[in-house]
Amino acid sequence: MGFLIAGGIILIVGVFWIVMYNGLVKLRGWKEEAWSQIDVQLKRRFDMIPNLVSTAKKYMEYEKSTLSDIVEKRNQITSPDLSREEQVQADNQLSGALRQFFSLTEAYPDLKANESFNKLHEDLVSTENKVAYSKQLYNKSVMQYNNKVESFPSNLIASVHNFRKHSYLEASAEERQTVRVDFDK
User: I want to staple 145 with a disulfide (CB 3.0 to 4.6 A). Which of 5, 7, 27, 66 is the partner?
Assistant: First the structure.
């Protein structure tokens, strides 16, 4: 009888362990899938930028430094040596350069009237929105994963199997600044 009780307890603990472990694996998978969604959108944006820049070059002779800055930041993101944090930092810098670029386009009515530029601009704005959504999804997935890694009793299983907390994606200092709009110019 004692063997049955001991066997039942071992079976319950084993099933509990497996369920908790599988829950951690599932959340880690969701976190990785959310990161891959960010990666897909960054790739999409990466592919669009040369077309946008070449279209704009025809009109923006005096703004070549801004255009070359965008291309340089675009190329930094794809470096295989970058960690996720460095990729996010490079992405934030590119987003800032693109915001500057879009504000400069206001000074070029011929460019704003160009149909291919407008289509590329709309696509890029849409992609920027998708990047933002993907980052939100990633942070939500990281929160769920981290909660599971830190919560009792799954934290015991997480520590045994080397599940570690992950950091959130955060806005850069540049993105936190208030946008200044000046109508006097």
Answer: 27
